[in-house]
Structures are given as structure tokens and as C-alpha cells.
Amino acid sequence: MSMALQTKQTLFDIDQSHKKTCNPFSVPKRLLLGPGPSNSHPDVLKALSLPPVGHLDPFYIELMAEVQELLRYAWQTNNRLTLPMSGTGSAAMEATIANSVEPNEIVLVAKKGYFGSRLEDMAGRYGANVKTIEKPWGHAFALDEIQAALEMYKPSIFAIVHAETSTGVCQPMDGIGDLCRKFDSLLLVDTVTSLGGVPLFIDKWKIDLAYSCSQKGLSCPPGLGPFTMGPRAEEKLALRKGQVPNWYLDVSLLNKYWGSDRVYHHTAPVNMNFGIREALRLLANEGLEQAWTRHKINAQRLWNGLESLGLELHVSEDLRLPTLTTIRIPADVDGKAFSLHLLNEHGIELGGGLGDLSGKVWRLGLMGYNSTLDNVNLILNLFETELPRFKNNSVAAS
Amino acid sequence: MSMALQTKQTLFDIDQSHKKTCNPFSVPKRLLLGPGPSNSHPDVLKALSLPPVGHLDPFYIELMAEVQELLRYAWQTNNRLTLPMSGTGSAAMEATIANSVEPNEIVLVAKKGYFGSRLEDMAGRYGANVKTIEKPWGHAFALDEIQAALEMYKPSIFAIVHAETSTGVCQPMDGIGDLCRKFDSLLLVDTVTSLGGVPLFIDKWKIDLAYSCSQKGLSCPPGLGPFTMGPRAEEKLALRKGQVPNWYLDVSLLNKYWGSDRVYHHTAPVNMNFGIREALRLLANEGLEQAWTRHKINAQRLWNGLESLGLELHVSEDLRLPTLTTIRIPADVDGKAFSLHLLNEHGIELGGGLGDLSGKVWRLGLMGYNSTLDNVNLILNLFETELPRFKNNSVAAS
Predict the structure, then answer these.
(1) Contact, A278 vs A41, CB < 8 A?
(2) Maximum CA pair distance of chain A?
(3) CATH code reported for the domain at B42-285
(4) Which residue, B316, B305, B319, B313, is CA-closest to B363?
(5) Mean pLDDT value of segment A143-149
(6) Who's near B143: CB < 8 A, 6+ residues apart?
(7) ipTM of this model?
(8) Does the domain formed by B31-36+288-397 have CATH 3.40.50.2000?
(9) I need a labelling partner for B275 at 20 to 30 A (CA). Which of A356, A389, B336, B363 fits?
(10) What pTM was estimated for this model as a whole?
(11) Domain A31-36+287-387: homologous superfamily in CATH
(12) How far is the alpha carbon of A354 from chain B, nearest alpha carbon, in Å?
């Protein structure tokens, strides 16, 4: 038999042209102080590398329940439908849209940065009649502006970004939930850059749909998208006329796997779930109060330090996100060259601006595992000692 | 400042009810001989646990190119658009549908198991006029049956499963690509349980769209969905009237990130890509000929051994998948009890039947890292020595 197979083997006519020869690799040491991913906690990386088990294994089923429960704590919600989508934060974002939007419904999107625009794009793809209100990048919406728009458009869904990763703005949420109930709109909120790092209360704020990511406040690598859906959104899903036009993200199917039935939907990314379970455990061990306070204290230190170096922060202090700070690139500085220098010489990643802020700001994240006094001191020291070399006249002189 | 924050901290009114106390965990030792996930190669798990880098880091950009090139080799294709989707195999499956189906087009699905039905479901969600041809679970389609259906329905897309994970059938592919070109249909193929383990030639077989997974023949944990799209499908995408109705899986957007522009789309699951890069490297090191031959030899040993124990295999030998074997549960055996016994007493996962084969077969996978002589001997030994205890009369007697 073995002989016969050996003969057959020569019949395989394999094209070797893409057979690239590679060696095992090591990764360069990076301190990720951009808009995300942030560095992962070492215990999370250890959990990630445990041998996989089956997605219907009793051990895994128990772990799923732990992930859900710990996620409810992190998000401060009792929502039954709280689970990590098997994709990145963008998949969870699309899940909130795909499961709630029905064709021709009015969806009102409050745009004050890049991720508001993405919500607009996605809602359009699901057939919504999308209306928008806009603010300049770096500002937040006032409650009366939101009220006026809800009155005008009477949307089925109102979508807004809590922590706008492109601008560093934290949208004040007080009163928005009540307004949405008054106008019979579902409240859909992006919490990508707030979960785990910034005060966030899904139930208290009357949020009906929210999504986040694994790689920022949770100190886990990217690859899972926490998702939560409250009773009002669940009811809308149950009453919808057609199927959810997205199979992978269809919560009515996913619920049969994550709920008590454990009906196979797709093969879960088990190792990523090992990772997020550990990340959520570490967050619960620290406690939300402590984690939020730590982020706030370190951000405040960073802001004070940057301002004392004469740098300008793009967002007014009352609206600043503790997890992500936008720093205006001084007019005489080559911002990109400085970022490249930090990456190449110090292994530190700093983010650039997106969209309206492209070329105008650096984005500096202090998220999860990376929100430490040491990191604040390190980056402030580099801004103090090395930024001057990137002023235009200095570059020209060197 | 620190005092002020401390005071503020007491203002957080945190609900502690979901603050589950958990310990760090270890996983039970499992030999995964079901339909997948299969065990991962230890080097892949090591790669998975490396610290993440940014998704636009020059190091990561280079790694992406390696993943793409190695995937082209594994799939035997020159397709430019060859990349892992940031979700599981089901996400990649949906990506082939979402990017190719336009509303009201005829999509013909050849159904001979569970995954054909899923293709039918997905195509319907994207507005296709879905037609189907069917064979009993455990059979394959003959070329003339496919020809007759193509003639009758003249579909825009013909979808078929190469390696049907629910039945253990390997669909002969000779001539299907030529027929699809003759009838101007795109050929969309499920290669979830064939990639890396079974002869598979995307270009030679004239396949226009294919998808797979990371957790079977590639010996990587689940979480990425290899995807490839040939020039004919790319042209259809370029000419489509509306936007792709799925943002996360929109290849026209993804191509700007994976192509030369590197425009941010979503934050890539960098650690999963570390893992698949290592998995694909190990496959290239072994060589496709050797990997395919190894799977075939070990499967043949398993089949011979099972038959010599008097067990019946569900699929005729000429159509059997080397990666996944369906074994008929003898009439006098409690199949579920035997699977549970293997899991609980020996840490071995065996799959049950799905759909039409529910309760009728076990599904036994020998995939990637798990396709070894030792595993064959181990499982044959357990079938020989322990299965007799699960015959109804024995159970009753004990």
C-alpha cells in the first residue's frame, strides 16, 4: 500500500512557484501607544497559547458562560445576549447594525469622527434610510442637539460613538437614553475605546445595542468583538419581517449556540476566547473602579506633562478620553518623521491622524495593560528630549 | 489630584452582581479526532502567544505578504486576492457569497450534506434566486448530473462542497471547472476540510471562489478563514451594480489593506495571523505532496483497521475523504455513550453525526498535525478494546 501511494505521489503536479521559504519568526519588541492594538497582558498571551479544545467540549461550554458573565460585569449590563462576536470590533459593529436595521427604516447617525462615518456606511448597506448630524472632529454633541434631531427624524435607531478613537472625544451620555425611549428609538453605541478603561454603564445609560473590541481596554490581542443587545433590541429582532441579511453575525442563530441549546453555528475561535476570558478575569480582579481610576490618573499625568512641554491637546479637557489623547502636531514639526523615529529607534508605536485630522495630530493611547506611570514617564521623556530634533529647522540643519 | 480622583471614585456606582470570581485556568488534555478543530502544532501555539504588533507595523505588513504567498502555495493558485478573512471558516464562506452574489441572480447549489444547505441559506440572504440539486448524504455528484443542472438553470454561480465535513465525501472535481466556463457560471467551492490534507488545485480546477478554515489541515486554532478569488470573480465584483451588502467582508475594501495601498479597514487579528503564518510555513516545509500522502496513508490504515474490526464505513472507498471518516454506529451500540466515554476517560474527542446522519455515524478526523500513525493505532485500539462494552446487551448487563 505504501508503495502504491509513493507511486501515486509522483502524479501530483505541484506548482512550487509560491512555495516561499520562511524561517520561524520572532516579533520586534513594541510598546503600542497608538489607537490600538495595545499591548496584551502576559497572562492573556499565555492563555491564548493553550491547546485548543472542541467548541462543544463541556470545558469550553463552561468557559463561554464565564466570558459572558465577566463581559456583563465589564459592561455593567444584565443583557442575556452579551457575547464576543467571532471577529474583530468591526464585526461586532456590523452585528449591531445587521441585527437591528430593517430596510427603509430611518437610522440617525451622530457623526463626530471616522467611526460615525463607518456606522453611516454600514447602515446604508443594510438598506437603512440614513440621516446624520455632524460635529467637527474633536467636539461632542450636546443633549439639545440630539433631541432636535430625534424630533426631526424620529429614527428607529440612533447611533452614536461613546469613545471616538479618531478624535479622542468621550461623548457625555447623560440623558441620551431617556430621549431615545421618549422618541421610541433604539440607542446603539460604539464603546470600542471605552470598555475597560472609561466609566461605561450599558443598563444605567439605557443603551440597547453596543459593541467593543478585545485589543484596547481589555489587554487582549485583536480578534474578538464584544457585543451586547438589550431587551428592546431583542424584541425588535424577534419581530423583524425578513431574515437577518448576514448569516455569520445573525444573533438569532448565535443565541442558539451561546444560549442554553448549544446548537452548532460556527466553529468558535476557542483560543481567542481563552484569551478574552483571562483578560476579563484580570479586569474583574482589578475591579472596574480601580481600572477606570488608573486610566484617568495616568491620562491626567500625560496631559499635564504634554501641556507643560508646550504641546496642545486637540480636545477640551472636559471631553477628553483617558484612553486616547490627540496631540496637535506643532506647525514646525514633521509629525510622521517623529512617529517613525519612535518606532524604529525606541520600538514605540504612536498613531497618526485619520480623516479630517490626518497629518494634524498624533494619537496616543494608554489603554488597559499599557496605562501605567512608567509608560507615561517614558513617552513624556521622549517628547521632551527628542521631539525638538524634528522641528523643521533642526531637520534642515542636521 | 490623586485625592480628587479618589473622592470621585466613590461616586462610581458599580453593580457587582456579574463580578464572577474566577481563577486562571488550565485546559484539559484533548486529542481532537472529531470534525475539527484538530490539535494545533505546538510551534503554531507558540507563535500565537507572541506579543502583538500594530496592524500597520512594517513587520506585520511583511508577515501579511508571507501569509498570502504561502496560502497561494497551499491552495495552488496565482490569485492576487488570496487572504485569510478575520473570522472563522464560516465568515470566509459568507465572504465568497457576499462578494459574488447580486440580487435575483440564479445561484445553483449542489447539496449533499450540511454545508451545501448552509450555502443555500447564505445565498438566499444575499437575495439570490437559489436553485438546488441534491444527493443523499454520503454520495457525490456525477459530472453529467452537474451538466444537466447547469443547462437547466444557467446559474451565475455554481456552488459545491469539495470536502463535505458532515458526510466524509470528497467530491471528484474533474471537468466541473470546464463545464462552469462553458455555461458562464462562476465556480464556488468549499475546501474547509480539504486544504492542507487532500489534493486540491484551485487554478488547475478552474475554481473562481473558495474558502477554508485554519483549524483542520493547517493545524492552527480556529479563528481565520482563508479566502481566494480568481480573475473572473474579481471582474464580476468590479462590475457589480450595488455595494457589497456586507462591510466587514467586502473584498473591494479589504483589498486596499491586503493589497499594496495598506489602507486601514479593520484592526487585523494579528496574533491569529502569527499563528497561521507559522502553520502555513510548516505545511510548505513538509511539502504538499508529503502532507497529502501522509493523510492518505494514515486514513487508509484507519479504514483497514476499522473494517477489520467489523465496522462499516459510510462512504464508498473511491469517494472517501482522507481527513474525515464517517463510521456507521452499529445498531446495537449506544454511539453517544461511547463518544462520551472516549472524552471523559481518554480525553479523545470524536464527532457525532449532523442532520441526516445524526445518531447514525461517528465522524473521525485525522487532520494536519493529528494525522499520525500513533493516533491511528491509539483510536483503533480503543475501538477494539472498549467499543464492545457499549453494545446494548453489555450495557444492560453491567
Answers:
(1) yes
(2) 80
(3) 3.40.640.10
(4) B313
(5) 98
(6) B172, B174, B175, B176, B179
(7) 0.95
(8) no
(9) B363
(10) 0.95
(11) Aspartate Aminotransferase, domain 1 (3.90.1150.10)
(12) 10
